[in-house]
Amino acid sequence: MTVRITHPRSLIIPFPFIGQIAKKIRSFPLIVLLFSPISVWILTEAIAPQVVRAYTARVDLNIVRMADESYETILRRAEAISRAAAQRSFDKDILATDVSVIVTVESYGAIAPILSLEVSRQQWRTRPDPKRWATYFKTARSLLLFDTKPAISTNIGQPAPTMTPAASPANTTDNSPNSPAN
Questions:
Q1: Inter-residue contact 78 to 63 (CB < 8 Å)
Q2: Which of 37, 102, 140, 165 is deepest in the core (most CB within 10 A)?
Q3: Are strands 110-120 and 134-136 parallel, antiparallel or unpaired?
Q4: Which residues lie closer than 8 Å to 140 by C-beta, 6 or more apart?
């Protein structure tokens, strides 16, 4: 014995106007599928896929000034490491179309940017010279105290000499209880 239960349509779709829309959707599922946003997106991706989006690789480098190092020597070091950083960035990441390198220098506690290298991959291929693509900061020399001699002792690690005051006979006073003044 099999019991067959049929649910009235009102239990599945409680509103009659929704039931009418549902009947139409069931009758034309291919039209709804073709014009839905998902199918349009799939179709456009199949015909013309999106172009790969590239980006700018950013690198910040710090240099510490060595003792008795001139500004020109620091500048040459900054150019050399910016060139290496740009080349390494292009080699490491094939999606990077541009590279931005900022080199800062620390000199006796003062920190300032010395150069900024911004170059595209195509420019770097034609001429991989940091002098051509770098922007030099003119005020870096004075900000990093290259124009003045810093007042720093060259005897680092050695104790400073101490001065002991010498006792002079005119300034000595005896405040003991046995002194004749008391």
A1: yes
A2: 140
A3: antiparallel
A4: 105, 112, 113, 114
